Amino acid sequence: MEARLVLEDGSLFRGSSRGTRGEAWGEVVFNTSMTGYQEILTDPSYCGHILTMTFPLIGNYGINREDFESRRPFLRGFIAREFCSTPSNWRSVMTVEEYLKENNIVAMDDLDTRAITRRIREKGSMRGVITTEDTPYESLLEKLKHIPHISEMNFIPEVTTPEMYTWENNGPHIVIVDLGLKLSIGRSLHNTGCRVTVVPASFSAQDIMELKPDGVAFSNGPGDPQMATGAIKTVQELAGKVPLLGICLGHQIIALALGGRTYKLKFGHRGANHPVKDLMRDKVYITSQNHGFAVDEESLPKGLTVAQRNLNDNTVEGLQEKKLKIVSAQYHPEAFPGPTDSHYLFDLYLEYMKVS
Predict the structure, then answer these.
(1) Which tens digit of pLDDT belongs to each residue from 121-137?
(2) Could you tell me where the beta strands, DSSP code E, fall in the chain?
(3) Is 98 a catalytic residue?
(4) What is the reported pTM?
(5) 248 belongs to the catalytic site
(6) 156-354 maps to which CATH number?
(7) Where are the domains of the chain?
(8) CATH number 1.10.10.60 given to 2-147
């Protein structure tokens, strides 16, 4: 069955349907990772997006039951040059195509993903519609004119956990505010010995403090950080009372809460091979990233120090505020997929808690 992708600039791409039948719209972005497609598929930060993989063959090792990053995939559509129909791995329980159909994700292959990627790099991330229906091209293009931009939508209520849950341990108690949490963040903190409690994004600062945390972490998540008004207020009320950790969206929210600004990147950073320099350690690390917004360095208030910087475009990748005991990272220190170079960030946060 044929599938089509139409971008708001009028670009039309034809291919084969590999997911559920139907139509979906969202912001079209690309990811440069060579492996880790299962973790990428289930990263809640892709809510509202149609994702194009730049690596040409996706699905070689199938889908297993252990590597999910959330309870289900939240992305709107999935595109690859080719999906593998005969995966080979002892843990595999289904193909990527079967998983996409099971979760009602519209997907397509047999098209030039390089052309899509080049178009996005040249013009920036664009709204798009992916469809298996016979809707006329002109109607799809007209529909795209009325689709809201990603900065006009709040996806956090869709991706956050519906109820609180805890991973028991004997160490410090960390409360994670789930703004679209990748489970590997919770696992990484749990593996350091922490007792981890994950709470919905709707929890207030008072609700969180009643859990008697030794530290509070704000997770990754989808969309424009300026839409996360509830989380911004919670950071403002917690800052100085308990050590804070922010990852990806959480990093941006901390900057906003303390008086900084954020802005939209042309096409974002999405992949497992982004070089970041730790200015405190004078070392370069290869990181896993997935974000479309960044912190405006010029807007940062006194005391909030840039600790890490992206070596591709010089954007802010990490912040520290020693007086308030705040650590944040724009990239994903838990990786999955990606290198584990930056796991030390969790140890740094634990050190902040020890002196609190």
Answers:
(1) 999 999 999 999 999 99
(2) 2-7, 12-17, 23-31, 49-53, 57-58, 77-79, 82-83, 106-109, 126-131, 165-167, 173-178, 195-200, 215-218, 244-247, 261-278, 283-296, 305-310, 316-321, 326-329
(3) no
(4) 0.96
(5) yes
(6) 3.40.50.880
(7) 2-147, 156-354
(8) no
